[in-house]
Amino acid sequence: MTGREFFTRFPALYPFLLSQLEGAAASVDSDSGQVILHPSLFLLLLVLGRLFPSPMDGSSSPLGLAPFMPFIIRCGRSAVYRTREMAARALVPFVMVTQVPSTIQTLLEDLPLEPGTRTQQNHIHGTLLQVLFLLRSYQTDTHRPQAAGSDISQALRPRLWLASRQNLCLVTRAVFVDVLGAVCGPLAAPVGGK
Predict the structure, then answer these.
(1) Are 18 and 69 contacting, i.e. CB atoms less than 8 angstroms apart?
(2) Which residues contact 83 (CB under 8 A, 6 or more apart)?
(3) Residue 105, Cβ neighbours under 10 Å: how many?
(4) What pLDDT does residue 193 have?
(5) Which of 1, 119, 124, 158 is deepest in the core (most CB within 10 A)?
(6) Which of 7-21, 73-87, 145-159, 168-182 has the lowest mean pLDDT?
(7) Please, what is the end-to-end C-alpha distance for the chain in angstroms?
(8) Is the pLDDT of residue 154 over 60?
């Protein structure tokens, strides 16, 4: 069911889910180092991850899906691995296929250009997961526009340190390699042969 159809059928859920997600996203970004999870965070991400974008999103209805995106992206900074993964899955249906390359580029530009003492590995990992899930959905969509691979490659190139030993976190290193594989995979696919 598209988000537009869902919220047209249940209009009272739109402000409720949006306010709940806003509260959940605010609790995720804790600088204290303590893991604080909003009681309904998993349920919110699960429900939102089941919706699909509509080509008519926001055109004649104030019930567009765009206001949810920044909060879902922020949930990807959670200290809990499962929350980061669910946020990456939930983001995919909220990004229109025409907006996937620009959203990926924006997410990548949010990553640090070099290692530092203030590097937040949870934030990096969550962002890379969102990029990976968006790339995979984009590549499987048969109605996608022409790929903007060069823009994505240009955003990845200065962040290659994430795949090197300079990045001490093996989890983020592995996801970055997966992102590189998703970007280069369709180009490097073997032609026939053994």
Answers:
(1) no
(2) 28, 37, 41, 42, 45, 75, 76
(3) 16
(4) 47
(5) 124
(6) 145-159
(7) 42
(8) yes
Long-range contact set of residues 131-134: C-beta below 8 Å, sequence gap at least 24: 131/104, 131/107, 131/179, 132/88, 132/175, 132/178, 132/179, 132/182, 133/88, 133/89, 133/91, 133/92, 134/91, 134/92, 134/95, 134/100, 134/103, 134/104, 134/107
Cα–Cα distances in Å, from 105 out to 36, 49, 157? 29, 21, 12
Sign of CA pseudo-dihedral 68, 47, 83, 114: negative
Residues in the chain: 194
Closest listed residue to residue 95, CA positions, set 54, 36, 143, 44: 54
Question: Can you count the helices (H) and strands (E) in the chain?
Answer: 9, 0
96 is written with which tokens? 């229109």
Entry pTM: 0.84
Per-residue tokens: 55: 């080509």
The reported pLDDT for the residue numbered 126 is 93
> What tokens does 24 get?
């959940």
Whether residue 38 contacts residue 24, with contact meaning beta carbons closer than 8 Å, is answered with: yes
